[in-house]
Fold:
Amino acid sequence: MHARAGSSKFERVTSAPASHEPVAIVGGSGALGSALALRLSLAGVPVLLGSREEQRAVEALKRIVTLIGPRMDDHPIQLSAATNRNAVDQAELVLLCVPFRSHSETFTNLRPHLRPGQLIVDATVPLAAAVSGKATRTIGVWQGSAAQQAQEMVPEGVRVVSALHTVAAKTLGDLNHALAEDVLLCGDERADKARVAGLLQRIPGLRCVDAGPLEQARIVEQLTAVLIGINIRHRAHAGIQITGLPDAAALWPEHPNPQEDVR
Ligand SMILES: NC(=O)c1ccc[n+]([C@@H]2O[C@H](COP(=O)([O-])OP(=O)(O)OC[C@H]3O[C@@H](n4cnc5c(N)ncnc54)[C@H](OP(=O)(O)O)[C@@H]3O)[C@@H](O)[C@H]2O)c1
Structure:
């Protein structure tokens, strides 16, 4: 493993060559972003962990490296800390993990760094907590959903897939927790959703399900508020499983070797 500290752009940990295209995580210092960086890094995906402040990204990277610990010896880790802008400059796949209250501001700031061909994976939930309301309620978004707001704000040629709303950061970030849950993907292009499934299904125990066009995000984003209520009542970190589906290989024939079915 090579650990490079104090570079002008970012701190970096590299232990093997890449086996996937790099992924930028905007809001990588947060609960969901850090958990994704942890699991994706272990799955061999090069991750550019972004923050508004490079130092916060470096701190998050150090926490993740500590969690990975000795697993570093037999996993090809490629993890870099960067500003959100530098991260987005270096990746065609961008995971957006920021609170709804900063959603539109984040797109305004990142817009000059977005370019045609990039794919945004938006996990944002418009929880009422963004306006001092309850986390078990959502607020209305004029466009229909946060994901549709994102699609309206990105430059021409950048597309959005909505994903990950039902995956709890707590369990995702706990390597002792064996995941076994579904991720609903909403997007207007099947190829985009297949690309996202190809990324997220590298995380053992996550199965992606095509949940329809981006406008369906207005329903899926609401599920988080329901799950938060369930979690409060049952002191749990609940996810979802869709029953009655064919196996993962049939769900995503675009990926000839999908991971074993999580059921
Ligand atoms: N947590 C979960 O279990 C979970 C599950 C599914 C979906 N989600 C959704 O995923 C998104 C992220 O959730 P989270 O729990 O990870 O949130 P979080 O920890 O509160 O925040 C994530 C990151 O967003 C950045 N951020 C905070 N305020 C910002 C602002 N005003 N402008 C720009 N960036 C700001 C911060 O990074 P820097 O300060 O370093 O820039 C922060 O570390 C939310 O929309 C949430 O609804 C969360």
Notes: The first helix runs from residue 31 to 42. The first strand starts at residue 2 and ends at 4.
